[in-house]
Task: inverse folding
């Protein structure tokens, strides 16, 4: 079965995908932790990860305005969250920014691309994917234990069965498995 966290905001397409994934679960219990997000929620997520990893820079304003920039000597004019977020990436805690921004530190994408000095887009949980669909996050916990492999196996099975999964990404830094989705209920909506 698939459990849905109380605060997860889901659209019809996501709900249908979850219904289909539930069919592939067998005895495993998966948990959906996130559907749609706001920039403020993304900022809270960054704050939570940064506290856990002890890399909150002094200019960071928890719950502060997303667009607020600060002038830092030796760095320049940056968003108040930009150094903290960049450090997380550098440490391997992969999280999108609440707003498109330049990564200030060395961070190599799984594709091998070095992102220091390059723009990284805001989370697809905020603005949607290029195909207009929104992604889903699952906790890496299954039946109470962290098992990325088990969650991935269920999702791979669901993907093969046509559950509307485009891509499965393991996000070890935040203990979740992210899926990009496909439009599967467009034909039902007149
Ligand atoms: Zn995600």
Result:
């Amino acid at each position: 079965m698939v459990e849905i966290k109380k605060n997860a905001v889901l659209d019809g397409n996501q709900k249908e995908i979850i219904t289909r994934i539930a069919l592939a679960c067998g005895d495993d219990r998966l948990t959906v932790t996130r559907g749609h997000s706001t920039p403020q929620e993304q900022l809270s997520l960054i704050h939570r990860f940064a506290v856990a990893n002890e890399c909150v820079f002094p200019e960071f304003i928890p719950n502060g305005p997303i667009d607020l920039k600060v002038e830092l000597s030796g760095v320049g004019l940056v968003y108040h969250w930009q150094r903290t977020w960049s450090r997380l990436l550098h440490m391997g805690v992969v999280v999108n920014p609440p707003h498109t921004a330049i990564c200030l530190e060395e961070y190599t994408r799984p594709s091998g691309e070095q992102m220091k000095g390059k723009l990284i887009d805001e989370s697809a949980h905020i603005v949607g994917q290029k195909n207009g669909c929104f992604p889903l996050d699952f906790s890496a916990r299954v039946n109470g234990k962290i098992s990325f492999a088990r969650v991935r196996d269920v999702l791979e099975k669901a993907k093969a069965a046509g559950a509307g999964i485009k891509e499965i990404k393991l996000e070890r830094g935040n203990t979740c498995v992210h899926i990009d989705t496909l439009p599967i209920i467009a034909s039902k909506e007149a």
